[in-house]
Amino acid sequence: MSFVAAAALADVPQGGVLAVEVDGEEIALLRDGEDIYALRDECSHASIPLSEGEVEGCEIECWLHGSRFDARTGKPVNLPATEPVPTYPTQIEGDTVMVDLSPRS
């Protein structure tokens, strides 16, 4: 795995999302408790930035049509989206969120 710095841990809001660009990729970082999840910042249904949506636990909702995605797997949990969004492994090094851009899904 090849982890790169994505953001300061303090910049990722608790129970929220932070949009970042990592090596040219638009990434949404979600924080649920001590866990940080990374997924492509684009709804698979309508190409809308997911980081503009609401976060609830490990799920993020696309504000345009209401599709929700599980940030752990990238899979949609309701319609209209049927395709998953890519997710990326994360780790914390000191005060920095690190992301491996090799897609998991």
Describe this structure in words.
β6 (59-61) and β7 form a beta hairpin. 0% of the residues lie in helices and 43% in strands. The chain has strands spanning 3-8, 17-22, 25-32, 35-40, 55-56, 59-61, 68-70, 87-88, 90-93, 96-100. The model has no long low-confidence stretch (mean pLDDT 95). The strands form 3 sheets. A 4-stranded antiparallel sheet has the order 2-3-4-8, with no helix packed on it. The chain has a 3-stranded antiparallel sheet with strand order 1-10-9, with no helix packed on it. The protein is mainly β.
The number of helical elements comes to 0
Categorize the overall geometry: globular
Helix content: under 10%
Helix/strand class: mainly beta
Secondary structure blueprint with pairings:
Elements: E1 3-8, E2 17-22, E3 25-32, E4 35-40, E5 55-56, E6 59-61, E7 68-70, E8 87-88, E9 90-93, E10 96-100
Antiparallel strand pairs: 1-10, 2-3, 3-4, 4-8, 5-6, 6-7, 9-10
In short:
This protein has strands at 3-8, 17-22, 25-32, 35-40, 55-56, 59-61, 68-70, 87-88, 90-93, 96-100. It is an all-beta fold and 105 residues long.
Any key phrases for this structure?
single chain, 105 residues, mainly beta, four-stranded antiparallel β-sheet, three-stranded antiparallel β-sheet, 0% helix
